[in-house]
Amino acid sequence: MNDLFLRVCRGESVERLPVWMMRQAGRYMSEYRAIREKHGFLTMCKTPELAAEVTLQPVELVGVDAAILFADILLPLEAMGAELKFVQGDGPVFPQPIRSTADLGRVRVPDVEATLGYVYDALRLIRKELDGRVPLLGFGGTPWTLATYLVEGGTSKSFGHVLGWSYADPKGFAKLLDLLAETSALYLEGQIDAGAQAIQLFDTWGGLLDRRRWREIALPPVLKIVERLRGKVPLVYYIRDAAHLLPELRELPVEVLSVDWRMPLDEVRSAVGGRFVLQGNLDPTVLLAPPETIVEKTRELIEAGRGGAHVVNLGHGILPTTDPDHARLFVKTVQEISATP
Amino acid sequence: MNDLFLRVCRGESVERLPVWMMRQAGRYMSEYRAIREKHGFLTMCKTPELAAEVTLQPVELVGVDAAILFADILLPLEAMGAELKFVQGDGPVFPQPIRSTADLGRVRVPDVEATLGYVYDALRLIRKELDGRVPLLGFGGTPWTLATYLVEGGTSKSFGHVLGWSYADPKGFAKLLDLLAETSALYLEGQIDAGAQAIQLFDTWGGLLDRRRWREIALPPVLKIVERLRGKVPLVYYIRDAAHLLPELRELPVEVLSVDWRMPLDEVRSAVGGRFVLQGNLDPTVLLAPPETIVEKTRELIEAGRGGAHVVNLGHGILPTTDPDHARLFVKTVQEISATP
């Protein structure tokens, strides 16, 4: 039984660093593609046996120290009443985006058991199949990040609709975030009840906001969720592209702060204080480089993280073009190097 | 004759702040759309009369204090031998991207007069038509930012190809950057000869790199260009998404540093030192908000910039969905507020 990840999250000392990779169940693996070719992405999310199978693939084939539920951060938005499609090449699409207070009537806090029960079934099945081999993370998006997709109608380059609404009608927009926070809290409480041993919150687009607006807009609904989950399991907060926000994160009441590759971990630690376990932050494109570069950069990463507790991970999701042998090399390098004092 | 912009760049005192907007000649104006409906984007760039007409529109209809050449940062890549298309909805596409040292044979330093003479003709025509009303900026992309498009084959989400090449074969990739630097230096020298009174370098994707890699990879070719242009006209360096890079920018030998909206200008100034004129940095989505919000945020921006010289601008290009009256309100507000002590 490998509980390194949970022990690091709890602040306990460990014999070596745990390592896992964001999007580790993904297209870079031929075993994943074989399943994906036969099933739509949403079908995979909604079929517990398939979700469990791909969740376990990187544990068995890459040797990571934690599993993370195969799902999508946008599933609870569909449960709230927003039609969601995954379009080949374009990613997620909400054909009827929510763009004003008047549109709020089209979404509601759902009965999470009735609408998202398939996620809970998947978690229970994965826990059973893992049988204690490694811990299992659940996850969700932060309300701000979920709102960017729901308001833009999918991914965006300029984020004009969501930023525009947030300036034009801050009170109406706050109502949307509050709905998203309540839904997320219920959804993630359910994940914990179903067996998730830690929860990662993805604030992928938090870095779009300046410091004051992040504090005023994005932070309150995160705190609402965190207050509901705190103490049950370790909480990981991931934020991308947020060097300018680090001073704001100092007081965030979560155990683990997960950051992208833009700043070395020792500088992140200086900026946020010593309280956090840090998670990250190898540039995922390093795994496209030759083996010797992967080993060198992994070594540097572990060195930069030595000032405190560290869960080794990438700074963003593993790229679909990654050679699985390179992913294995990264994982193995962490496990070997960090075991030596 | 309004030379506020140039006087601020030279460090002279001014009676009020100059203001212009990135992408100010653009789709938010019906007068621009009327021309764009009749001509392809590349045709507009390559027809000096059309480029001149849209360059002047925001001077005449919005009242900005500087004109910027209507062109695209990717034009010199086409001149280097890379086929370039603008595809409706997808933006720029290079059907045959450059992804390895072997591909370098497909691009070369061009005869800029022969291949980009239309840009120089446009600049001469614009200067003549402006007749001194406001200064005229030329511009180009930094080699790193140009490389992201040429290697990815267009815009990208993960930048796996360009980052992957930069890790896998740093020497070969440096050769590409060197070709891009030499081309850019020649191209921008030509712009100055043709009448550009300042040059803005767009490092739109510089913020993808961590601090050490930005210094090792992106900075040297920028310095090569800057060394060639320095002292001829004021140089503006624009970088987006780069709070983590600010300490590296302190010594950059340019007059003006232009930043996005993620950090208030007083904090940017603390991070980079007092030497720079700062340009920016209103969040372009503020212009989607009601008039009172635009006035309030513009007032805050001017306040944040008071610690030193300031060219007022947006933090990124104006959005196509902006109401032109809102753009005019922004410009007028700067011109009025900053004139009062």
Can you walk through the features of this model?
The structure is a homodimer of 341-residue chains. Chain A is built from 14 helices and nine strands. In chain A, helix 4 (48-61) runs parallel beside helix 6 (112-130) and helix 7 (143-152) crosses helix 8 (160-168). Chain A starts with a helix and ends with a helix. In chain A, 53% of the residues are buried. Chain A is α/β, with parallel strands linked by helices and 341 residues long. In chain A, the strands form two sheets. The first copy, chain A, has a seven-stranded parallel sheet. A two-stranded antiparallel sheet of chain A has the order 2-3. In chain A, strand 6 (235-239), helix 11 (246-249) and strand 7 (256-259) form a beta-alpha-beta unit. The A-B interface holds A 155, 157-160, 163-164, 166-168, 207, 209-212, 241, 243-244, 261-264, 283-286, 288-290, 293, 297, 319, 321 and B 155, 157-160, 163-164, 166-168, 207, 209-212, 241, 243-244, 261-264, 283-286, 288-290, 293, 297, 319, 321.
What's a concise summary of this model?
Two copies of one chain form a homodimer. With 341 residues, chain A is α/β, with parallel strands linked by helices.
SSE pattern of chain A, N- to C-terminal: HHHHEHEEHEHHHEHEHEHEHEH
Q: How do the strands line up in the largest sheet of chain A?
A: 1-4-5-6-7-8-9
For the termini of chain A, the CA-CA separation is 22 Å
Which CATH class of chain A is shown? Alpha Beta
The largest sheet of chain A is: 7 strands, parallel
Query: What is the typical, i.e. mean, pLDDT of chain A?
Result: 96
Q: In percent terms, what proportion of residues of chain A is strand? A: 5-15%
Please work out how many helical segments of chain A DSSP would assign.
14
Structure class of chain A: alpha/beta
Instruction: Name the pair of protein chains with the most residues at their interface, and give those residue counts.
Output: A-B, 33 and 33 residues
The CATH architecture of chain A can be given as: Alpha-Beta Barrel
Using only CA atoms, what is the Rg of chain A?
Answer: 19 Å
- Uncertain residue segments of chain A: none
Question: How many strand units of chain A?
Answer: 9
Assembly classification: homodimer
Shape of chain A: globular
